[in-house]
Amino acid sequence: MEIILGQARRRWSEDEKRALVAETFVDGETVNGVARRHNINPNMLFSWREQYREALPCTAPSSAPIGFAPVAIVGPEPSEPPPAARAGLPLIELEFESGVRLRFSGAVDPELAAAVVKALPRR
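and the corresponding structure tokens:
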């Protein structure tokens, strides 16, 4: 027989849980940072956030207004068009301020396109 001694399970009161969840919504805070500071598992904190979603104001104030990004539609570049355009396939090309250019050709799953754009580094 093996006996493993560990720490006793901590119990958190409703007020303590709500205070920890509220901490995660402070500007500049992260769930991982709050969890690390209070020595709790981040998954537990995420679970509490779900539990108190309706009770707490979950919208963190944003410094930037929410709206649409400016879009410019330009004519074709004088250079050779990409092979997809030459083949008559639909083509979507996005150029970001950082200089990154993203081309989607043919039938593209919208969820995949959104995931690719979201994964781009923010500069």
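(Above: one complete record from the training split.) The longest strand covers residues 91-95.
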